[in-house]
Amino acid sequence: MERAQLVAFDLPDYPGVYLFTQGKGRSKKVLYVGKATSLRDRVRSYFDDDLIATRGPRIVDMVTKAEGITHETTPTVLEALVREAALIRHYTPSANAEGKDDKTFLYAVITDEEIPRVLAVRGKDIDFEACVANGQKIQVAHGPFPSGYQLREALRLIRRIFPFYDTDKPIGFLGKHQQARVEFNQQIGQYPRNMDRKEYLRSIRNVSLFLSGRVKMLRATLTREMKQAAREERFEEASEIRGQLFALDHVQDVSLIKEERHKGVAAPRIEAYDTAHISGSNAIGVMTVVENGVPVKQDYRTFRIRGLMQKGTGISKKSSLTATSRESKRMNDDITSLKEILSRRLGHPEWPLPRAFVIDGGKTHKKAAESVLLEVGVSIPVVAVVKDEKHRPREVLGAIRASISEADAVLANSEAHRFSLAKHRAARNKGMRTGT
User: Fold this and answer.
1) Looking at residues 286-299, what average pLDDT do you find?
2) Percent over 90 (pLDDT), the chain
């Protein structure tokens, strides 16, 4: 699909969900499902010149294959979020790699208990056939949700309208400290207060309808119940339901809007690493930081690679090594540098730890980075961005396990490479000026 074709789809400047499709009629296939604060602006972004750098090769391939776009508008981004999850589950689109992975991504489950709870649980901890999550019987699992951060924000917002419990243990089996937390949350309106079991189960029903993406049905149900309460002169209850209907259309989902504008980041903080060698003696490594899709330049760091400076492993053009030997030597240098950078970075406990480490390279580099983390007992996923012969992103390894999108991994990697090149040039120019 080309940018010029967008005008035919008349996308509005409203929140909602969009579907890239291929084919027509019964053969129509949904390639990708996404949500947006502005359907018009978000879909336009798929035709930017820097799409491969910001979204990755999987999305570029999807846009190239797409022949059509359909959309649904929603009153809020919160509603778009749950509708997106429902459509991903229904269509299992090929380009929604996150949505297909039942083992890694988050689901909102409702426990099968006397007092049900609503919990965020990873797919790997759910037995869907037995309806069990973490050893606990469940009524239903809603999702998958591509962003764990957004699901938790959604649950926080939904709980303001329809109160529910999300305690680690069942209600009635809580310890002293946990019970104190429940009572505090009841006082500030985060947990149900002065509700009998019938009222609470109605609230859980509303939560389930919302999380399944059936918000139109939820509105119809609440409207019917509000009118019934008014006819029976239960005016306080009718007023409460009216307030819930209003909240559904006017929820202040500022956090989700902010997240959406930063292209749906799953991880609050991502760190990326790259190295640059100038004849060995000026080997440097860099660390860059991306939070919510935005570079945090005050957190960037530069490391002079001590190991390579001592070994003098730079390769000159006059080297007698074969091309294969030079490539092998260069890879060994890169891995040695990467290990040193990560080791020194982890020696700074005052720096906040990221959701994921992104490195430049393939499986070998990824395993090398993981070995460093294993040695110090840090269980943070490593994501590797594999490049083609023109140094363009070809494949992203480990993004699903790290709960970040390929686009975020590519963005972080691109920023690290840009920063590394800038430092490389600065060091080279300094060397030329000083005659070294």
Assistant:
1) 86
2) 33
Predicted TM-score of the model (pTM): 0.57
Instruction: Using the 3D structure, point to which of 216, 236, 257 is the last residue of a domain.
Output: 257
Among the candidates 73, 88, 123, a domain finishes at 73
- Three-state SS annotation for the chain: CCHHHHHHHCCCCCCEEEEEEECCHHHCEEEEEEEECCHHHHHHHHHCCCHHHHHCHHHHHHHHHCCEEEEEECCCHHHHHHHHHHHHHHHCCCCCHHHHCCCCCEEEEEECCCCCEEEEEEHHHEECCCCEECCEEEEEEEEEECCHHHHHHHHHHHHHHCCCECCCCCCCCCCHHHHHHHHHHHHCCCCCCCCCHHHHHHHHHHHHHHHCCCHHHHHHHHHHHHHHHHHCCCHHHHHHHHHHHHHHHHCCCHHHHHHHHCCCCCCCCEEEEEEECCCCCCCEEEEEEEECCEECHHHCEEEECHHHHHHCCCCCCCCCCCHHHHHHHHHHHHHHHHHHHHHHHCCCCCCCCCCEEEEECCHHHHHHHHHHHHHHCCCCCEEEEEECCCCCEEEEECCCCCCCCHHHHHHHHHHHHHHHHHHHHHHHHHHHHHCC
Q: Are residues 155 and 67 in the same domain?
A: no
Residue 374 inside a domain? The answer is: yes
Q: Is 39 found in the same domain as 151?
A: no
